[in-house]
Amino acid sequence: MTLQTGPIKSIPGPDPNTRTPAFKLPPHSCDTHCHIFGPGDVYPYDPKRSYTPPDAPLPAFKALHAKLGVERAVIVNASVHGTDNRVALDAIAQSNGRYRAVANIDGTIDEKGIEELHEGGFRGCRFNFVRHLGGVPDMKVFDRIVAMVTPFGWHIDLHFDAIDLPQYADMLSRLPVPYTIDHMGRVQANEGLDQLPFRTLIDLMERDEKCWVKICGAERVSTAGPPFHDAVPFARKILETAPDRVIWGTDWPHPNVKVMPNDGDLVDLIPLFAPEPELQHKVLVENPARLFDFNDA
Q1: In 3D, which of 231, 242, 132, 109 has the Cα closest to residue 180?
Q2: How far apart are the first and last CA of the chain?
Q3: What are 248's strand-pairing partners?
Q4: What SS3 class is residue 141?
Q5: Annotated catalytic sites, by residue?
Q6: What letters, b where the CB count within 10 A reaches 16 and e where it falls short, cover 91-103?
Q7: What is the distance between the alpha carbons of residues 76 and 286, in angstroms, rounded to a whole number?
Q8: Could you tell me the CA-to-CA distances from 145 to 11, 108, 197, 250, 292 in Å, in that order?
Q9: Cβ–Cβ under 8 Å, residues 47 and 3
């Protein structure tokens, strides 16, 4: 993450009036991409962060999932907390086995630190390549961390700008561990299914069994705006390509979006992505249980 040289921008919080979705999620459904922010007086925000969110603490996180019918969650520790993973560790400890997490770590971590996070319920670590969040990480550190987490069975979570995905495809295919690509690769719907970044994503899914994709961030993919239906063909193509390696998430509380979605509306996109009950169960229950080491799926 780059050091801020000017004021840190503040961003809006999520829609507080979550609509109860019409679609009923199956038991053990998992939101595999969501965040907890603060409260800042307990879990301070990183001074090198690129933005400041309103607090989105654990009680609000729980209330959201209760309204949506979500029973399991994977907390992706956001860049605003830097490499301090306590907010997710503490949430997991209170979850009775219903939460897992993805860590933010850097080159200062050692194997003992990885082991402690693993015991605390972490099953992966995230790297941002997105320009507004600091751009390309130190690739020597990246390679060292990949080697460190491999014995723990972790995956690598990757956040790209769509335009940059083609240049990293070969590097990704050489990774020794599974990896997830956030937000459908952040492709733009108005560029169509044949755009190079999306063709790159589909090609990776076809030729590399380590490649998983999150069908979240419809509000980031959409160029038409709510209810984000122009993102549906992209999610559908991803599901048709590798249904055993696709997972879903809300991305609550939706940092740095142009249009703030209602999470109930996002849940109601699921039967448009996946009308088949068997596919819904695979994406919402079976696949996340396998990747994140949940039991009783």
Answers
A1: 242
A2: 37
A3: 215
A4: helix
A5: 251
A6: bbeebeebbbbbb
A7: 19
A8: 31, 10, 26, 27, 19
A9: no
Question: Rg of the chain's alpha carbons, rounded to an integer?
Answer: 18
Question: What does the block give as tokens for 170?
Answer: 């070969």
Q: Which of 238, 263, 281, 277 is nearest to 65 (CA)?
A: 263
Contact 69, 21 (CB under 8 A): yes
Task: Render each residue's pLDDT in the chain as its tens digit; 297 residues.
Answer: 444 456 899 999 999 999 999 999 999 999 999 999 999 999 999 999 989 999 999 999 999 999 999 999 999 998 999 999 999 999 999 999 999 999 999 999 999 999 999 999 999 999 999 876 667 889 999 999 999 999 999 999 999 999 999 999 999 999 999 999 999 999 999 999 999 999 999 999 999 999 999 999 999 999 999 999 999 999 999 999 999 999 999 999 999 999 999 999 999 999 999 999 999 999 999 999 999 999 754
Q: Taking a C-beta distance cutoff of 8 angstroms, is the pair 163, 135 a contact?
A: no
Rounded-to-integer distance, Cα 281 and Cα 286, Å: 6
Q: Which residues pair with 126 in a beta bridge?
A: 157
Cα 180 to Cα 148: distance, rounded to the nearest angstrom: 18
Asked whether the beta carbons of 71 and 99 are under 8 A apart, the reply is: no
**What is the Cα–Cα distance from 226 to 220, expressed in whole angstroms?**
11
Structure tokens at 150: 């491999």
The 72-76 sheet, strands edge to edge: 30-34, 72-76, 99-103, 122-128, 155-159, 179-181, 211-215, 246-248
Q: H or E element: which one contains 76?
A: strand 72-76
82 Rama sector, left if φ>0, alpha if ψ -120 to 50, beta otherwise: left
